[in-house]
Amino acid sequence: SVPLSLNEAQHGRAKLTDYDFTRLKTFSRLTMTSSAGEGDLQLSNLVVKQLIGKGKYGEVFLCCTTECKETPNKGASGSDRTYYAMKRIDRKEAAKHKTRIQHILAEKECLRASLDCIYIIDLIQTLKDQQNLYFILELVKGNPLYVYLRNTVALEIIQNNFVVQKQIGYEIMCGMQFIHSKGYIYRDLKASNVMLNIDGHIK
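Given the sequence above, the corresponding structure tokens read:
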């Protein structure tokens, strides 16, 4: 196979928002700005808003800084720097399985090594308390790819538009190649682990 470059993946982009996807959008009214950066966040200044997902090793919550305000979204990006996704992992449960601890540490190191790739969710910070480990992650405004594939209207758009298919495929391949270039093998690629943001790009 011919390696794909980031430039190739960015060529000929089609936005899924060109179509009627409004009822599939999530978090569409969240503010797009934040001064928070690596090392700035503490559990005491994060507010958990709601559960947004469950994974093999923990639960994922929508959270924001205590001073955040819900304002109309005026940006074009699908990511958010005031609101975050918080992955919570039970420390006692993780400690019961040696391989689980290894997987959690590998995920952390892989995410840290992948901050330069626009197709991989950014790890903002890691935190912990006596009960849990926390991954504070970039919030992607959108849905897992499987949500679109299970929606009749969205699936028809994807099936009948080669440009959209090529874009999604290229971006997934670029993300995979970046991870592999850092020495990690990603073995859990599935539609539920690929986020499609409101601009039609993957994370």
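Strands lie at 46-54, 59-65, 79-90, 123-128, 132-140, 142-144, 195-197. Try to locate this feature in the token string yourself.
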